[in-house]
């Protein structure tokens, strides 16, 4: 018979549960924690004392409540003192941020990224952004790690980017390269950008409270972050969510992955710009110019947006039928396309998806906006702390 958890195991789990709640939900009274976590008042008091002693939370009196009696102390995350570094490696730019416990963005930097820049070249630039941010970090602050969001297929075990067609990366060790720049005391975790953005929106964004979510992220290509039953669905090796490479046209247009007829060849950056007669342009600004031209009555731009919206609705209908989500979120350039062609997308979704799967699905844009990948990358770094709060510091 397998022995049950020890007292230390139970204490560690309870500390993690309390810190996770405060990290996600913000300042919370002891009374609320007692009810939410199902623990007695003395246990909550002991746990908060332990977390306060190592500087992870602070306690104080609440603002005036207007109620009689002694108010319950409020537990707050030490956002300014406990933080993670977050990075987003995108097609045309590199972004870095310092994000405090509780999800507060404390500082940020953005750099242009020449297309073709490899991991060994990107890592020093990202580390340089960190050195700038470190100049204003309090001397007693604790860095719990770093998280990286990357456009591409990321091997979960070691953060190797196996394939990033839109960034030109093949077997690029961004986690190891960045770890070497930052030093051994800063563990680095790497994830796919759509997956970590879904993680962030599920934890503290528009999908908070939804257990089944599909987050579509677009730049040059298209990927998805999937939350199923409240958990991230990443597949056996971490390569799940590559929905942009669903085959939608037999012997269709060539895709950067090497195949033909992939979904992203109909809804990605290249497809929309080509259809609008702007094949020489590229990047987010070029796409926004197409949407603006369509809004002003440009017939070719309108046709391009309508076609892309139709294909987007077609693919979303298939994904809704497969995953039966409560919510579909459109991020990155998919947000821009959704806003420009919402009626077209909804029409195709209504005609192609199963009625039972459509009953409760909601279409949304990210509450966290462009910060979703950064906040999600930070969540990867915070996971180690939340699993064992007293082992980090």
UniProtKB/TrEMBL annotation:
<dbReference type="InterPro" id="IPR043129">
    <property type="entry name" value="ATPase_NBD"/>
</dbReference>
<protein>
    <submittedName>
        <fullName>NBD/HSP70 family sugar kinase</fullName>
    </submittedName>
</protein>
<dbReference type="Pfam" id="PF00480">
    <property type="entry name" value="ROK"/>
</dbReference>
<dbReference type="InterPro" id="IPR036390">
    <property type="entry name" value="WH_DNA-bd_sf"/>
</dbReference>
<keyword id="KW-0808">Transferase</keyword>
<keyword id="KW-0418">Kinase</keyword>
<dbReference type="GO" id="GO:0016301">
    <property type="term" value="F:kinase activity"/>
</dbReference>
<comment type="similarity">
    <text>Belongs to the ROK (NagC/XylR) family.</text>
</comment>
<dbReference type="InterPro" id="IPR036388">
    <property type="entry name" value="WH-like_DNA-bd_sf"/>
</dbReference>
<dbReference type="InterPro" id="IPR000600">
    <property type="entry name" value="ROK"/>
</dbReference>
């Amino acid at each position: 018979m397998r022995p049950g958890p020890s007292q230390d195991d139970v204490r560690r789990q309870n500390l993690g549960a309390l810190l996770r709640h405060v990290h996600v939900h913000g300042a919370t009274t002891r009374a609320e924690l007692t009810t939410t976590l199902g623990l007695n008042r003395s246990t909550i008091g002991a746990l908060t004392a332990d977390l306060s002693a190592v500087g992870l939370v602070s306690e104080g009196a609440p603002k005036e409540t207007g109620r009689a009696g002694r108010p319950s102390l409020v537990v707050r995350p030490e956002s300014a003192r406990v933080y993670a570094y977050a990075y987003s490696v995108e097609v045309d730019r590199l972004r870095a941020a310092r994000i405090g416990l509780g999800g507060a963005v404390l500082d940020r930097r953005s750099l242009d990224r020449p297309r073709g820049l490899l991991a060994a070249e990107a890592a020093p630039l990202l580390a340089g952004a960190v050195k700038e941010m470190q100049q204003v970090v309090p001397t007693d602050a604790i860095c719990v790690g770093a998280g990286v969001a990357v456009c591409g297929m990321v091997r979960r075990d070691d953060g190797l980017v196996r394939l990033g067609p839109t960034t030109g990366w093949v077997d690029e060790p961004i986690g190891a390269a960045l770890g070497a720049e930052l030093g051994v005391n800063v563990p680095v975790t790497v994830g796919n950008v759509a997956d970590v953005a879904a993680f962030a929106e599920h934890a503290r964004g528009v999908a908070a409270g939804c257990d089944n979510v599909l987050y579509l992220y677009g730049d040059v290509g298209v990927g998805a972050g999937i939350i199923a039953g409240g958990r991230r669905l990443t597949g056996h090796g971490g390569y799940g969510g590559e929905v942009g490479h669903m085959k939608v046209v037999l012997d269709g247009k060539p895709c950067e992955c090497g195949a033909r007829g992939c979904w992203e060849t109909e809804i990605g950056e290249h497809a929309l710009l080509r259809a609008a007669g702007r094949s020489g342009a590229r990047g987010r600004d070029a796409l926004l110019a197409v949407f603006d031209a369509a809004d002003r009555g440009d017939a070719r731009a309108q046709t391009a947006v309508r076609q892309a919206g139709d294909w987007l609705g077609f693919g979303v209908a298939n994904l809704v039928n497969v995953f039966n989500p409560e919510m579909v979120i459109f991020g990155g350039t998919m947000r821009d396309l959704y806003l420009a062609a919402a009626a077209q997308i909804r029409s195709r979704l209504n005609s192609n998806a199963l009625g039972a799967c459509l009953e409760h699905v909601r279409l949304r844009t990210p509450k966290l906006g462009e910060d979703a990948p950064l906040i999600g990358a930070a969540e990867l770094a915070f996971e180690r702390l939340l699993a064992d709060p007293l082992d980090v510091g």
